[in-house]
Amino acid sequence: MTVQTELSEISPVMVEVKVEVPWETVDKELSSSFKTLARTAKVRGFRPGKVPTHVVRKLYGAQVEAEVTGTLVERGLMEAVQKHKIQIVAQPEVDEPVFTKGESLRFSAKIEVQPVLEAVDLSKLTVGHKPVTVSEEAVDESITRLRHSASDLREPEPMRGAKETDLLTIDYAVRVDGELHPDLGAEAREVDLGDDGLLDAFRQGLLGLSPGESRNVDVTFPEDNPRAELAGKPAIFEVQLKELKERLLPDLDDEFAQDVGEHKTLADLKAHVRGDLEKENERREESILREKLIDKLIETNEIPVPPSMLQQQRQQMIQEFIQFAQMTGQQIDPSMLGDVDGRAERRVKAGIVLGALARIEGIDVTNEELEAKLASIAEDTGKHIAKVKVEYAGERRGQLENQLLEEKIVGFLKSKATIDENMVEASTVEETPETEKKAPKKKKAKAKKAKADTPETSE
Question: Which residues contact 142 (CB under 8 A, 6 or more apart)?
């Protein structure tokens, strides 16, 4: 179908197309539709398939004209989009078409589009960033976690009051503003006094408690508690200690190093842990630098945001939050979303500016690079390359390609950026990777996952 089209820009995120379908095309479509209908129409006084076309036109004219008009509008709009290479981000708003027998079919449509950036300014791409170092303290903390994971549990003989490394089993009820909240209480709840996520006030309140004893512990919930009605509120935990077990930590020696992995000496274990910390640190630093570069790009370039893209991104983030809350057993509290509109806008802008940069600079992912990545995944996972290719077929292959493209774009940004280490102060790595996973399978007590209404600090 050949149509005449005219494109005009209303704004960077909105265009209008005017479409004109020649009468010859409209008449041909009408005739074809009437002939098809005549073969199936049931009209009193005529045998099926023998209804004259002029009778069909008289009886079904308005219906056929409406159907043909709808079909031609859809086809004409699609042709206009393809001809002008319009990147649609929302359903077009089509004005009522003008249909007059003997004349061209005319209509117009407003279309929300992804903005096309003709250039991306990199001249102000200066960010402050100084990579942190792995301290001896961080290595020691990671080793301590390994010892904790490899520890044995037993009841002290004789029994004593709770100490900071003990595992307790408690029943408790909670009062907030003097009112008992049954939904906050728990029975037979395991509490690891060595857990860093435990509120210090709650930990201190349990120290010295012996099995069978009860105690009221004053706790103030954090201001960032996931449940808004509890944030910053003082509460009283009425605790009864049911069971106490002490941890027997393994000696920090070569034998311990051999137990927790393929290490001959304690020095080998420490070197391995440091290597893991440095890899984790490198990944984290790379992510931090990436976000700084993208923030700077957004700050120094004017990036129009289509309302529909913003709304779609916002809905996606809300859905992600709901799924996460359901997986972790948290109550869904809208206040936990924070500035979802601001974060959604940043995501949309980042996608637009990075896509424009790839187009302008000719950055793409070759099939050879994709194959090399699949081979790397196979090597890292120990899977046969054929199985990896099956796993990364279809949508997952596209996601992997997008990941590689983003890595190349960020690499290009780093090559063009000025990274000033004097703009920020160095800090020390406090977080450690999950080296506990390498611990041997000994008797190991696992504390239950923290909920939003319990005295663990929220993240």
Answer: 273, 276, 277, 432, 433, 435
